[in-house]
Amino acid sequence: MTIAVLGAGAFGTALAITLAQAGKVTLWARDPAHAEQMHTARVNDRRLPGAPFPDTLSVTADIGCVSTAEVVLLAMPMQQMGSFLATHADLLEGKTLVSCSKGIDLATGRGPIALIESACPRATAAVLTGPSFAADIARGLPTALTLAAREDASALQTRLSTPTLRLYRTTDTVGAELGGALKNVMAIAAGVVIGAKLGDSARAALMTRGFAEMSRLALKLGARPETLDGLSGFGDLVLTCTSSQSRNFRFGLALGQGEEFDAGTTVEGAATARAAVQLGQRHGIDLPVTAMVAALVARDLSVSDAAAALLSRPLKEE
Questions:
Q1: Phi, psi angles (nearest 5°) of residue 252
Q2: β-pair type (124-129, 143-149)
Q3: Where in the chain is the domain with CATH 1.10.1040.10?
Q4: Residues with Cβ < 8 Å from 156, sequence gap 6 or more?
Q5: CATH class of domain segment(s) 3-171
Q6: CATH homologous superfamily, domain 182-311
């Protein structure tokens, strides 16, 4: 299967580097100047410095590169995916489209599978998600991810696996999508806890109650519990709530410290928190941590007031 990776951020670049070990891969960048820079330097100094490109990886700013690809990885921010798919639907129709985004579309409340199927009904949609940092993948460090598709994806699983990137497949697309999306919200909350110097015990409590919250919403929407217990739920939650490599955690850390955060850095959990609150209200699911994050991001609530609100909730059984 020939592969094109659309999106030259850190994660898209890392996937292109590791997948090019097994065959030719094309990495598409939106910015022609960035594409030319990577083509010449054979490294993405802007997003993933120190990770050289193999000879089997080519770079382009021509979206026509997808015409020769059987598998297209969509490695772009979740809030840009809907408009991208609508703009390029004719080129992408009939392909195997694998979303590498973790989030919920704020405009529609949809996950990536639904966005793909709406824009390209003859495409095969899948999601690649799970606990991973771009730098680890690019360096060839052991990483395990979840590949979710409605139908059996054995052949795709084989093509996207490498000696150091191990994929586990599932047909529970809802669970895989929501696990990856909602853990970003909890990572922001965990960053706030540490930034506000509330302690590691508070972070552990936040992660535990946050995971229960993730599970409540996902199961209501049709996910299977074992999916949330796996890589795309619990595994990803642990990684992003405990490492400063996580952009969502660093964003929360800045919030907790009362500092500004780089506006040019994509923080998927910020928009996802708002979208998840809307889903929770629609389905009658209580999401106190998610609502707190949404309020903090909107600057509608102070960190001290958010902590007090969570700690003053009624006592109950676990």
A1: -65, -40
A2: antiparallel
A3: 182-311
A4: 1, 71, 96, 98, 126, 147, 149
A5: alpha beta
A6: N-(1-d-carboxylethyl)-l-norvaline Dehydrogenase; domain 2 (1.10.1040.10)
Q: Which residue has the tokens 């629609």?
A: 282
Residue 248's pLDDT band (cuts 50, 70, 90): very high
147 by DSSP, 3-state: which? strand
Whether residue 183 lies in the annotated active site: yes
> How high does pLDDT run on average in the chain?
97
Residues of the chain with CATH 3.40.50.720: 3-171
What are the structure tokens assigned to 139, written together?
Answer: 């360096």
The encoded tokens of residue 34 equal 């960035």
Q: Which residue has the tokens 């964003």?
A: 251
Residue type, 57: L
Residue among 129, 100, 126 at smallest CA distance from 113: 126
From 95, 183, 220, 316, the catalytic residue: 183
Using one digit for the tens of pLDDT, what is the confidence trace for 132-174?
Answer: 999 999 999 999 999 999 999 999 999 999 999 999 999 999 9
The Cβ of residue 107 has, within 10 Å, a number of other Cβ atoms equal to 11
